[in-house]
Amino acid sequence: MSILEVAVLPVIPGQEAEFQAAFAQAQKIISSMHGYIRHDLQRCIEVPNQYLLLVEWETLADHTEGFRGSAEYQSWKALLHHFYDPFPVVEHYEAIDWEGNYGTT
Q1: Would you state the pLDDT for residue 102?
Q2: Between 20 and 30 A from 14 (CA), which of 60, 75, 87, 104?
Q3: 55 beta partners
Q4: Strand, helix or coil for residue 28
Q5: 25 with 41: CB under 8 angstroms?
Q6: Over the stretch 19-37, which tens digit does the pLDDT of each residue have?
Q7: Residue 32 Cα distances to 12, 64, 72, 73, angstroms
Q8: Cβ-proximal residues to 83 (8 Å cutoff; 6+ apart), any chain
Q9: pTM exceeds cut of 0.85
C-alpha cells in the first residue's frame, strides 16, 4: 500500500510564473528518487497563488528519510522553498482498506 504526501503550497503573490518554472525543474529531482511513484501539481482556482502538490511514495520513509535526507533534497529546497509564505504543511495519507484493516505503515 502506498503513501500519499499532500502539501498545500502558498506561493508569494506575483511569483506564480517563476514558481511554476522552478517546479518544472524540481519535478525532475523528485521523480528520480527511490520509492517515488508519481506526482501531480494543481493550481487553486479560487486562490491562484495556492497550489496542491500530491506525491505518491512506496513508503513513508521513502519521503521522510530517503528524499528529505538526500543531497537531491537540498537542490529541491534551493529551487522552491523561497517561494512559500507561510511555509507549507505536509501531511501523509494512506488508503482505507474497506475490508476493515488499517494501513501497515
Answers
A1: 60
A2: 75
A3: 5, 39
A4: helix
A5: no
A6: 999 999 999 999 999 999 9
A7: 27, 15, 9, 11
A8: 9, 11, 12, 15, 18, 19, 22
A9: yes
Question: If you classify domain 3-86 with CATH, what class do you get?
Answer: alpha beta
pLDDT tops 80 at residue 100? no
Record the cell numbers describing residue 47, joined without a space.
486562490
pLDDT at residue 98, as a whole number: 85
C-alpha distance from residue 16 to each of 8, 77, 91 (Å) = 14, 17, 23
Chain centroid to CA 41: 8
The grid coordinates of residue 57 equal 511514495
- Residue 1 — pLDDT band, cuts 50, 70, 90? confident
SS3 call for 3: strand
For residues 68-85, one letter each, b for 16 or more C-beta atoms within 10 angstroms of the residue's C-beta and e for the rest, the string is: eeeebbeebeebbeebbe
